[in-house]
């Protein structure tokens, strides 16, 4: 059994006897003292692919699902479907844009380090690597005298993702980004 606070996008859980894939999580911290942090989830049911939304408190318990993981590579995308290949036996699997949710922004042709989640030999979802290297496409010019301090500026990186980067980061630089928190880690 897992606590709701431990669920992240890409995980699989069981609620009311049905298996769900976590598409996104929104954390809401109430301002009242003693109030519990709320987690609003958007799920896809694994069998029917139907969207399901639910809000839990952090300590609420959800069921675990027995699934296998395998290393995958994202081969390519045709816009609506993504084709993945098993690294060991070269089997290919397809997931739709809707099934992947927010993870689509991070996927690139040839990307490795992806873990595929299988139930009864069927690919039901993926887990992205914790960190990826991406190119900065658009950010404000470097500020004179900027150092490696906590000051940050917005930047758009490959995949159309917007994150905050330190002032010293410039356009066309390669950086490492955390895929879970959307935070800058370091230059690549």
Kindly list the characteristics that best describe this protein.
1 helix, 16 strands, mainly beta, five-stranded antiparallel beta sheet
Structural description of this entry:
The protein is mostly beta strands and 188 residues long. 2% of the residues lie in helices and 54% in strands. The strands form four sheets. A five-stranded antiparallel β-sheet has the order 9-8-7-10-11. A hairpin with a 5-residue loop joins β8 (81-86) and β9 (92-96). The longest helix has 4 residues, at 97-100. The termini are far apart. The mean pLDDT is 88.
The major sheet is characterized as: 5 strands, antiparallel
Q: Outline, from the CA principal axes?
A: flat
Note poorly predicted spans: none
**Which structural class do you get from the secondary structure elements?**
mainly beta
Q: How are the strands ordered across the major sheet?
A: 9-8-7-10-11
> Helical region count?
1
- Give the integer mean of the pLDDT values: 88
Sequence of secondary-structure elements: EEEEEEEEEHEEEEEEE
